[in-house]
Amino acid sequence: MPVPMPLALPLSGSQPKMPELFILAGEASGDRIGANLISGLKSRMDVTVSGVGGEAMVAQGLKTLFPIDDLAVMGYADVLRRLPLLLWRARQTVRTVLRTRPDAVVLVDAQVFSHTVARALRQRGYDKPIILYVAPSVWAWKPERAAKIASLYNEVLSVLPFEPQVMKELGGPLTSYVGHPALERFPMRRSEPEKGPVLLLPGSRSGELTRHLPLMRSVATALADHPAVDGFVVPTPASLHNKVAHAVSDWPASVSVTSEESERRAAMNAAVLAFAVSGTATLELALAGIPHAITYVAEGAQVRLYRKALIKTIGLPNIIARREIVPEILFAHTAAPERAIAVLTQLLDDTTQRWAQRAAFASVRDLMEKGAPEAPLVDPAERVAFWLGQGVSAR
């Protein structure tokens, strides 16, 4: 299917109404994606933007409908605890879109919430474009989901280069590869420090922090005296800064918590190693060329889901490379951190192993910068501008 290209917005009299976009992100990584999209759109056209977002999207002028943290959940237990709030926010989102009738809706990741909102909008007669930014992982589990969302979304904007072909083969909606904002935000480091801080990334959701900070503490305690380690840095969203700072205040190691972008970048440039919860952060580390290991402390239901998955790696660098280039310590119980400590110690001791990771990361970055032959990289702002034009034409 050929990909339609942006069209000029139609005029209606001498002063056409400015196109209106509703955009929703459900967590910190989606907030950064949404902010990048808003910035790209504003550089191309005049557009009114409303929706739900965090610090980065607010910095682009968004007045958020409700706090983004209301949607930042992970795991079945976390969802069940907050289900009444999530359903209320979904109804609020749907009512707002139906009342304001924006020319297009962009839903960034938050797959279950986005699906709920998109389905309700279609059922209630919203016939303008809905775009899903970040494709569901149909290549990992429940591939039948691709066909089920074909009637909900006009287009899916994927951040992994192989996803357009997979979605096409499975009968899903039109899907375009648009790269990832991390490509621009995190250039590959020029050198490999012999000594520096260890980055600890316990996740950006409250539930993830609860499950992973004890494991991170054990790792920090064990590695604190390693000759290559010069303290620990925990980057975290500003909304979680106080919670994380309190949690690490009694750790028997030198730990710095930061929510400032400049401090995060400085720490990434200086870091000798990182230990990260599976998610966008692992891709950012890979694109920057930072050696790391990946972990995830999972609930029982998540473990059962993993066992049904079509793939057996969860780290984004490994999924893109189609092999394990980063060690994964999965479903480790917080009381048994020995394997994580052993893997990280080996990385610290073995310069050759760290450089092998760096070489693999360079290949991942090259693929993501170009896209696959059947799905080359396109600009997400151009794709959304096209659909805004379609929405304006439908007025």
Question: Could you give the distance between the termini?
Answer: 26 Å
Q: Please, how many helices?
A: 17
Instruction: Describe the sheet with the most strands.
Output: 6 strands, parallel
Number of strands: 14
Overall 3D shape: globular
Indicate the percent of residues in helices: 40-55%
Query: What would you report as the Rg, rounded to the nearest angstrom?
Result: 21 Å
CATH homologous superfamily of the largest domain? Answer: Glycogen Phosphorylase B
CATH fold naming of the largest domain: Rossmann fold
Total domain count: 2
Named at the architecture level, the CATH assignment of the largest domain is: 3-Layer(aba) Sandwich
- Largest sheet strand order: 2-1-3-4-5-6
Given as residue ranges, the uncertain stretches (5+ residues, pLDDT < 50) are 6-12
User: How would you classify the quaternary structure?
Assistant: single chain
Coarse structural class: alpha/beta
**What share of residues are in beta strands?**
15-25%
Mean pLDDT: 89
CATH class (first level) name of the largest domain: Alpha Beta
